[in-house]
Amino acid sequence: MVTLRLALLESLDLSGNGISRLPEDISACRSLKFLWLNGNRLRRLPRGLTKLRRLQLLNLSDNCLLALPITAFASRPRIVCCDNPALSYLPYSQLSEPYKLGMAPHAELECDGCFKDDRAKGEKVDGFQRMTSSRTGIEHWLDQTWSLGDFEMPSPPSLLELCMRAVEASGLNRFDDLPSTVAAALAEGPICTCQVCGLAMFGLVYVAFDTCTIDPNPLSGQRNRMMQVDVLKAFCSQRCKDKNRNIIV
Q: Is 56 or 127 the better-scoring residue by pLDDT?
């Protein structure tokens, strides 16, 4: 009965409760349209939050966020994450198409009062570790955490990773004949897609930091407040990462 009620919940206000973490199974609230999490102590967001297909508004203002999920939100909601000064970069997957194409921004993401705390660099959050010594790096999947470092060449994707990428690309939606570990990972879905070729990725990710000019408060109408922020981009291979050098965000 409790699970059924969560599945039917459309609006949830948890603002000002001092919450420091959200459960991964928040994805069970599959009817949720409006979620207020402002005024808490959140440093990271669970991946399950990105799976809410009906979510229209997500208010994350006045928290302690260091990053937004690299996994794109299924519903492309309006995200309000103002006054998170330690937010150090934006995942490319969370930028709207106008941003990606260099066009005028629109009100899909509001981040006024962010990108102000340099102490956030070098801290792990949402699986990523930002190195202060370099703006580019390589990601390794290790013990279910991400570690960003200055490596000349990453380890190649495992056979398991390549298998899951191939199955995802084939469009297969039944995993009965696959090993349980593979089936579970496929059912969970990819963590992100390659920014060059669009291939789904489940583990190893090659990354690079670019910059993007955004309006932190697009609803204000003050175009003189544009600012440049770091953007994390993910790639399926070194080849795609190298191709990105000729692509400007």
A: 56
pLDDT digits (tens, 9 = 90+) for 11-26: 999 999 999 999 988 9
Among 117, 43, 50, 104, residue whose Cα is nearest residue 77? 50
Rounded to an integer, the average pLDDT of 95-104 is: 52
Handedness of CA 29, 30, 31, 32 (dihedral sign): positive
Residue 95: which pLDDT band, with cuts at 50, 70 and 90?
confident
Q: How far is residue 196's CA from residue 95's CA, in Å, rounded to a whole number?
A: 15
CB within 8 A of 136, min separation 6: which ones? Answer: 207, 208, 209
Q: What is the pTM assigned to this prediction?
A: 0.75
Look at residue 4 in the predicted model and tell me its pLDDT: 57
Q: Bridge partners of 200?
A: 193
Domains of the chain, earliest start first: 2-151+202-246 (3.80.10)
* Pair of tokens at residue 25: 């199974």
- What is the Cα–Cα distance from 87 to 95, expressed in whole angstroms? 15
Selection from 172, 155, 244, 166 nearest residue 202 by Cα: 166
Distance in angstroms (rounded) separating the CA atoms of residues 189 and 155: 22
pLDDT of res. 109: 84
Burial class (CB in 10 A: 0-12, 13-18, 19+), 131: middle
